[in-house]
Amino acid sequence: MNKSYLTNQAYRLVRYFVERSVQELPEEELGRSAVVFAPHPDDETLGCGGTLIRKRKAQARVDMVFVTDGARSHDKVVSAELLRTIRKNEAISAGRVLGIEENRIMFLNFPDGQLYLRAVEAEIQVEEILQRLKPEQVFIPCFHENISDHLAVNRIVLAALENCGLCPVVYEYPVWFWNHWPWVSQSARLGCGTFRRIRVSLSANYQMNLLRRFRSSIFVGDVLDIKRRALEEYRSQMTRLIPDVPWPTLSDVGEGEFLECFFQQWELFYCYRMTPSQGEA
Ligand SMILES: [Zn+2]
After folding, report:
1. CA 111 to chain centre
2. Omega cis (within 30) before 182
3. pLDDT tens-digit profile of 60-81?
4. What's the rounded Cα separation, in Å, for the pair 152 and 147?
5. Could you tell me the distance, in angstroms and rounded to a whole number, from the CA of residue 32 to the centre of ligand 1?
6. How far apart are CA 253 and CA 245, in angstroms?
7. Pairing of strands 266-275, 279-280
8. What's the 72 CA to ligand 1 centre distance in angstroms?
9. Distance 5 CA to ligand 1 centre (A)
10. Cβ-based neighbour number of residue 74 at 10 Å
11. With 70 as the cut, is the pLDDT of residue 122 above it?
C-alpha cells in the first residue's frame, strides 16, 4: 500500500482502536449452521470469506444465497445474459474453494441494481429458505453500505426473519465500508482544499460511528491464502476479461487499497441475536 503519511497515521490509530475494542467470537460459534446472503457474487468472499472457510473446516453446514445476478457490473461491454452466466459460474467456483458444495448454493436472480423494486417478492423467497434451513446464524451485508442492493438485502432478510419468528444470531459484514478514508487514502477518494478537509472529517466521523457497531471479529490470518484463491475465481471482477475496453476491476477501487482491506488478519462483524417480537436485540 502506498498511503500518504497522514492516512497511514490515521489508519494505524483506527486500527489500534479496532483491535482493542473488538471481541473475538468464541471458537464454538464456527461450528454452527449458517445461511449467507450476498447481494452480488463476490460480496460473500470479500466480506466474510475467511470466516466461511473456518466454518467449513469446523464442519458447519453453510448455505449461500446470491440475491441478484450481478449482471450489470460490466454491462456496457458485455451482454447482461453473458455476464449473468459468467458470474454464476464464478460464484460456484469460489464456493468450491471456500468449501461450500454447489448443491448448497442458491441463485435468486433478481436484477442487479434494482432489488428494491422486487423487495416483497424477494422477502417471500428468503422467508421460504430460512423456514426450510432454520440456520443458527445468518450473514448479511451491513446496515449502512450506501449501495442499494446491499441495503435492500439487509432489510429483506431482517424482515423475513421477523416474519418467520426465527431467532438466529445475525452477522452483518462490511464490504463498501472499507472504501472510505482512512482505509483508502484521501488522495484516492477525495478532492482537495477545504472541500477535502470537510469530506475527510465527515468520512472519519462516519467510520467511527460504524466502527462502534463492529464489535465482533473472527481471526482469518491462517486462511488468507485460501480466501485470496476464492476471490481470484471471480475473474470478471479481478481481471480485465476483455483487453482494450473500459473494464473496472476491484484492484482499481481506491488504487488497490480497498482490495487489501479484505486481507487483514480479522474479519469484522456487527453481531446480534434476533428476538421474535422486537427485531434486533
Ligand atoms: Zn455487492
Report:
1. 18
2. yes
3. 999 999 999 998 888 778 888 9
4. 9
5. 25
6. 17
7. antiparallel
8. 11
9. 30
10. 24
11. yes
Reported as a single tens digit per residue, the pLDDT across 187-229 is 545 555 555 555 655 666 666 667 777 889 999 999 999 999 9
The continuous run of DSSP H or E covering 74 comes out as none
Kindly list the protein residues that place their beta carbon closer than 5 angstroms to ligand 1, a single-atom ion: 39-40, 43
Neighbours of 5 (CB within 10 A): 7
Cell reading at 29 = 460459534
Domain-wise residue ranges, the chain: 5-272
Predicted local confidence at residue 77, as pLDDT: 82
Cα–Cα dist 93/106, whole Å = 13
Q: How far apart are CA 171 and CA 131, in angstroms?
A: 18
- Residue 56: other Cβ atoms inside 10 A: 19
CA of 40 to the centre of ligand 1 (A): 5
Instruction: Give, for 140, the enclosing helix (H) or strand (E).
Output: strand 137-141
Distance 13 CA to ligand 1 centre (A): 28
Confidence at residue 166, expressed as pLDDT on a 0 to 100 scale:
93
Amino acid symbol at 58: A
Cα distances from 158 to residues 109, 212, 274, in angstroms, run 19, 21, 9
Decide if 136 contacts 172 (C-beta within 8 A).
no
Give the three-class secondary structure for 266: strand
Question: So what's the architecture of 5-272 in CATH?
Answer: 3-Layer(aba) Sandwich (3.40)
Distance from first CA to last CA of the chain, Å, rounded? 38
Gap between the Cα atoms of 92 and 126, Å rounded: 20
